[in-house]
Amino acid sequence: MDKFIIEGQTPLRGTLAVSGSKNAALPLMAAALLADSPTTLQNIPRLNDIYTFNNVLRVTGTLVNFDEAANTLVIDPANLSFPESPYDLVRKMRASFYMLGALLGQGGYAKVSLPGGCAWGPRPVNLHMEGLKAIGAEITMDKGYVIAHAPGGRLRGGTIRLNPSSVGATVNILLGAVKATGRTVIENAAREPDVVLLCKALNAMGAQISGVGTDTLTIEGVSGLSGITFTNAPDRIEAGTYMIAAAMHPDSDLLITKLDPQDLGEFTQTFKQTGVTLEFADDSVRVKAPEKLIPVSIKAEIYPGFPTDLQAQWATMLTQASGKATVTDHIYYDRFSYVPELGRLGADAVLTENTVAIQGKTPLQGASVMSTDLRASVSLVMAGMVAGGTTEVLRVYHLDRGYENLEVKLNAVGAKITRVAE
Predict the structure, then answer these.
(1) Any idea which residues carry the catalytic annotation?
(2) DSSP characters for 258-327?
(3) What's the pLDDT at 118?
(4) Residue 116's pLDDT is what?
């Protein structure tokens, strides 16, 4: 198990490129199972979650070829004959649960283990199962596995209202519905860019999905889909992470390339309130840190609201702002494992239920810290880059799940991060 040793304090200056989106890639990979010919996915990041999901696909008999140098993934479901996803793989990442909708849509049967993933908060999958039941699935549980059947081999379609809106449930229902015999309507559907991209890919494969980008999706079932060549989106959470990291040191001047500014939603306007200077081009943004960061309170909401996947990074930035602000998460109430670790570095952060209050500006000092999830890990790396002395971030395997070449990219723009085997 590796750890990072970080020497602070380091401003970020230079150019840094964003990788392909993990959260968008995984639904695209699941969708490839629905085709009658191979699908080629471009701009796929080299991440542990991608490797894990490749193996989930391979278990079914699907041929998977990942050209890592080209970030290109070819998925051929021609020999798919084992519609199951075992616990040993699914426990490693929640997105493996997309196999439920994909296998149901592909052949009318799925046996999928209940998922794992980051160790924080209740993230129930009942909404996924209720949605699939609403479009004709018969679902039972057996020793930790979800077993789903489509009578007659195909789901029938139906109407489901998601409460609350859920990216995962929207994706699973879409995967099950595109080859159903009738019409499916998803009300209060997620509008995240990952869902929009999936809809565009499915339509390119031959699906009939309307209302893309709105909270009501209508799917007219088709009898078959064809494989395509499709380019994955840039990772908006990675882009936001680097934007926030640059704002934390007053001498930072960072150009972030290969991003889609439109995917950032309301984050951009909120970020500008801190006093940071943002200069956007078609696929890049230059971030100039202010001399004095203004504390801005945020509430994590569903898209286009402030992303829950950026709230830990925002709270870390607030330790360097001049004044008090709060971070509240209305998506996942328990996503605050980073708070006591920031305290070990000297942060003044008090957690009450699903809100953390941060008093800045605090001169952080290096220490050993440990993370329990992906975004908490990167927030501690960011803290280490502005802390005095040496910071150790333990259990960085979380980072390898969601940030491609993190230390390599950050070191190229001024950070001093060393990966060491514990």
Answers:
(1) 118
(2) S--GGGGTTHHHHHHTTT-EEEE-SSEEEEE--SSPPP--EEE-STTSB-GGGHHHHHHHHTTSSEEEEE
(3) 44
(4) 56
Burial class (CB in 10 A: 0-12, 13-18, 19+), 148: buried
The CATH superfamily label for domain 2-19+234-421 reads Enolpyruvate transferase domain (3.65.10.10)
Residue with tokens 């305290």, as numbered in its chain: 343
Residue located via tokens 């998922």? 115
Q: Which one has a higher pLDDT value, 3 or 144?
A: 3
CA neighbor of 196 nearest in space, from 228, 170, 224: 170
pLDDT digits (tens, 9 = 90+) for 251-286: 999 999 999 999 999 999 999 999 999 999 999 999
Cβ atoms of 120 and 335 within 8 Å: the answer is yes
Q: pTM (2 decimals)? A: 0.95
| Paired tokens of 164 | 């609350």
DSSP, residue by residue, 143-156: TTEEEEE-GGGS--
The DSSP letter of residue 115 is P
CA-nearest of 53, 156, 162 to 99 is 53
CATH code of 22-231, in short, is 3.65.10.10
What pLDDT sits at residue 86?
Answer: 93
State which H helix or E strand residue 23 sits in: helix 22-31
The confidence score (pLDDT) of residue 91 equals 84
Q: Determine the 3-state secondary structure of 361 from DSSP.
A: coil
Q: Which of 63, 18, 75, 16 is nearest to 43 (CA)?
A: 18
Q: Of the candidates 333, 338, 377, 401, which has an alpha carbon nearest to the alpha carbon of residue 116? A: 401
Q: Fold match between 2-19+234-421 and 22-231?
A: yes
- Which band of pLDDT confidence, cut at 50, 70 and 90, is reported for residue 121? very low
Instruction: Say if strands 2-8 and 417-421 run parallel, antiparallel, or are unpaired.
Output: antiparallel
Domain boundaries, the chain: 2-19+234-421, 22-231
Nearest to 252 by CA among 53, 15, 39, 34: 15
* Three-class SS state of 234: strand
Residue 327, beta-bridge partner list: 298, 356
Amino acid at 39: T
Q: By the 8 A CB rule, do 277 and 257 touch?
A: no
> Which residue type sits at 120?
W
Q: Which amino acid is at 330?
A: H
